[in-house]
Structure formats: C-alpha cells, structure tokens
Amino acid sequence: MLRTVHAARYVLPFREGGSVPALIEADDLGMYVVKLRGAGQGAKALVAELVSGELARALGLSVPEIVLVDLDRALSESEPDPEICIPLEASAGVNVGLDYLPGSITFDPLVGPLPDATTASRIVLFDAFVMNVDRTPRNPNLLTWHSRLWLIDHGASLYFHHGWGPNDTRDGLDDPFAEVASHVLLKWANELSAAAGHLRATFTDALLEKVVANIPGGFLEPWGENASDGAHRAAYVAWLRARVQALPRFLEEATRAHALLV
Fold this sequence. Notes:
By secondary structure, this protein is an alpha+beta fold. It folds into two domains: 4-99, no CATH class; 105-259, no CATH class. Helix content is 34%, strand content 16%. The protein has helices spanning 42-58, 82-90, 117-130, 192-202, 205-212, 229-245, 247-259, and strands at residues 4-13, 22-26, 31-35, 66-71, 93-99, 105-106, 142-145, 148-151. Strands 1-2-3-5-4 form a five-stranded mixed beta barrel. α3 (117-130) crosses α4 (192-202). It is globular. The protein starts with a strand and ends with a helix.
C-alpha cells in the first residue's frame, strides 16, 4: 500500500506539465512534487502516474517514492495566481505526490552520464509497454540524481483509458508503439530481448493486481449504473495482462527502430 501524507504547506508551482505540479511540504516533513487531480488532465493522469511509476519500480528502475497526498482546500488561499489557485482548490482531497529530489538535473544525452545498455533497454521497453509518449529528447522526463537515472512524470502513459468504457476495455492493447522511435534512450538500448524476458517474468498477475489495488476509488470515474470500482480495477488488470501477452509486437517494433539508429 502507498503511504498517505497530509499537505502542510504549499511551497511553489512547477509551471510545466499538464497536471500543474506543485511543490508541497507534508506533515512528515518531506517535500513532494504533487500532481493535482483538479488540473486539466484530471484523475486519469494521476492513475497513469501511479500505475506506471509502480510498475517501473517493480522492474528495478529508479522512481521517486510515490505517495498519496491529502490536500486541504485552504492551501489554495496562499496562491494569488488564478492559474494555480483554481486547480489547487479543485484538488481538495487525495492527490498523487512524488518524493522531491533536491539537486537533481534533467538528463541530457549530450552531457550524460549515459545509461548502461541494461538500464536503457529496460526503460525503452517499459515505456513501450505503458505507451509513454513523453520520453523524447525534447522532454525526456528523466532526472540525473546521485549518478543514477530517475524516471518521473508518467501522466501521458496509458493513454488508452482516456476514451475507454466498460464495453471497449481492450483498446490499444496490441499497439506496437511506433513512437518508440523517438525515445531518448533508444540509441543505447542494446539488450532489448533480455529486457523483454525481465519484463515478462516481473509482470505477473499478482503484481499487476497489487499495483492496480493502489488506485484510490475516487480516481476511478463512473462507468455507468452497473460498473463498480471492482469492475474498473479488473479492467485495468486485464488490459495490463493482455499487454504483457502483446510483448512480441512492441519488442519487434523497438528492435526495428533501434536497428535504424546503429
């Protein structure tokens, strides 16, 4: 289960990202980059952040700790900018936060440090699995901290769920993910087959169910009169399970794209 912390102090906004992230100090004295449920992309971006982040962690990739952040409506009163104040006010209740990494810098492939082949391959194939379109040279969403690469901002992944419903829960599961050709780490992904084996062995049904169980019920938007939270969670698990079975399709696409670079 994810930890829940309570927002004690609003520090400052990060004026990039569709979820208008804010730096928050919590009652455990930790600092968190909080993705707001009341921002433009809504709760589904937070579901993607939580599910993708915990799946990446299960693969052994470095992801800041993800916590649930309870935010009081009163915190919005300290922000005079309506662009920030309005989503803060609309996000009263549970949101998603990532542990703040002080002193971290955005990964730059021209500066390094460069990833080893194992790490690069696992990140590339993981992003193909969750269909993360947001790991490009222009916007890598990778931080360098203590000589390691850290994965952040997965709100654009799992984009299939923005249009799905109880009758079309298989949308996109066999997508080969041609966007992998633009991945910032593809050049160094020389061990894609090994990464595929690692992913298949790691993403068991038990793990998928455990990760999906972390989604707060309030993040699961209504699907109709007869669709329960349980049915909604089961649909996520079924999609992820089927995506594992579709691994040969996006592995082939990633391998082809990598071959064009070398």
